[in-house]
Write a structure and sequence with these properties.
Blueprint (H helix, E strand, L loop, with lengths): L4 H18 L4 H20 L13 H5 L14 H17 L2 H16 L4 H10 L6 H6 L6 H21 L21 E7 L4 E6 L5 E4 L15 E5 L6 E6 L5 E6 L9 H7 L1 H9 L13
Parallel strand pairs: 1-6
Antiparallel strand pairs: 1-2, 2-3, 4-5, 5-6
Helix pairs in contact: 1-2, 1-9, 2-4, 2-8, 4-5, 4-8, 6-8
Bound molecules: zinc ion (ZN) (2 copies).
Amino acid sequence: MHFDDQTYARHAAAKIALIRSQDILPEALIGLVEQVLPLLRQARTQARVELPPAETCATTEAMFAGSPLLLRQHFPFDLEQAVGLMPPLLDILEASGDAAAEAAQALRQAFSSGGLDPEAVLRGLAAGDDTVFAPWRERLPGSPRALDFVATCALLPSLNKAAEELAARLPENLPHERGHCPLCGSLPYISLLKDKEGKRFGVCSFCGFEHRVRRIACLYCDEGDQDKLKLFRVAEYPGVRVDVCETCKMYVKTLDSRDLDQATLPDLDDMASVALDVLAQQQGYKRPTLSAWGF
Ligand SMILES: [Zn+2]
Ligand SMILES: [Zn+2]
């Protein structure tokens, strides 16, 4: 969604205030996101990405058959920018609390001693390769997703930029029978209902692209049988519903921008509706993706 900086800052501040007032997520986490938002917003305007030649992308025919334009590991991003964002992200992490501070110090130490290579971390995340990340989740039990968070945030601005530019290469009238992202093939972390007709969009958990999906279908297993699909709402959270699938037992939250009295900011609205994740998970449904922030 495109807002000027001032409008964005006002909407973001309102969402952060709402998240804080709910008293569900720890303040350290809320403060962390609050600090990171302007850094990433700024970086988004400076990101430089080089798009891959068209012949290395999926053909129109393959895309109509369901292939994404690019595989995740081939998705372009601004490596130089992402490496440069890691130190300020570690500083913000360090300032956000005890466990996070310890994690930030340990990671900084590992980066400076050569024990951890920032490029390998970023390429590992882009490729969906967990081998660099898994040991750090064990080594940092107080803040297990610290490295995921830093790497995810470092990549976000240029992945978002690349997605925006690559979207121009999507063929017209591409069918949207599947829930995955047509640019990179990743799963959506949340979905949106927009426009008067309530067209539904998935928001990609990797590149952030908002792509059209079927209104009534599971975004994870593509189940389309209405009898297998249910949804629930909670009065305290107007404009958010939870879509659950009895076939794969996954759920996704859906933001109805027509009911929300504020602008939709999927990454923050996801945090502002975390109570619904708790409810869905208590009922035995799973969420296959992380937040936009890597935790
Ligand atoms: Zn994507
Ligand atoms: Zn399903």
